[in-house]
Amino acid sequence: MNHYSNKIQIISESISLLNIVARQAPYITSYMGNKALKYGISIGGRAHDIISELQSIENEARDEFKDDMNDIHFFFDSSEETHSRSFANLLLIINNLHISKECDSFDEYENYLENIKEDDYLKAFYDYMVSFYASSMDDSEDFKPALADIVNAILDMELPDSEKVRLQQLFFNRKKYYPRIFALLKRSADIINKHKKELIKFGDTTIDYLKRELGDLSFSKYVVGNLYSERLLDKYPEECDVSLCYFDPALLGLSLDVQKKNNKIQTSLGVVGIIYHDSLNMELPFKSMKQLDSDKALSILKLLADKSKFEILASTKDNPAYGAQLAEKLSLTTATISHHTSALLEHNLLTIDKVDTKIFYRENKEQINAVIQYLRDNLLN
Asked: Structural domains in the chain?
């Protein structure tokens, strides 16, 4: 059974809005336009109304923070295509799927961060960083990172040296920066709350659509069956908590490993962007991933030119392997493996299987055969 909530997760949404302000304007319209091109759709009607509303909020935020752009770029800038994550997300160990349910206000969450045990923070920060560019977590649950492990993981990230220095500075001085970050977040939340009534209306229509679309099917099983492997379906429960994402309206997310008891998942966590509706349904992203055009084929070929990504696929062609196994075999860190598997999953070159608490990666032969066929069609007579 799916449990739906239209609640605006104000902490994560306030971060997303500031992440947007850190990008080139007008971001929302451009971002959603690119999504429309990717999915081969035209945006009109309800989707157009949502984008217009979000763009007006972005414009209002840009005006509000025009004198704070140095801080905005320092904390909230991101080199990623998506605005869902920035170094601020990482520093606050928060994202759309794992926002702390124990904290209903910024003051509570700031107090939580101030008083969290150092070992617990290091573990949460490390796990989030390992998955920072990844769609699934590595299985190193018992690993307790030290400061040196954090630094090494930062150095292993595929980022410019200047970005690595910025992240280290944020990490080591985080308690000094918290007051400045939360002051910005509170002002961001004030802007969002002005538009809360309209946003919730959009959220309600998305929930109505989800109830019709999914029926009795668990959202987690819907995502896993469409995106990963039908072999996983019986490993996921019927219970799934589904929340909405407002400022990344095309997002579809699922936590693969939450609320476990005796190594069995009790409840999955899902997040759905408010753009989805009968006229712009959730099947589109999955169909887009499975269709191979020239741009995707060339993007995949660029990935395969990377030795480590190529070796991961070669290592999983006969037998699946989990992150730590791949790291040991290829002499890479688990953080680096996680980064590479994220890119391969995004391009549908890997599938995943879950056995107990471990996530196994397996080469997706269908996608690789599609790339080979593309080369035959275009380069051979």
From this structure: 9-194 (no CATH), 200-280 (no CATH), 292-379 (1.10.10.10)
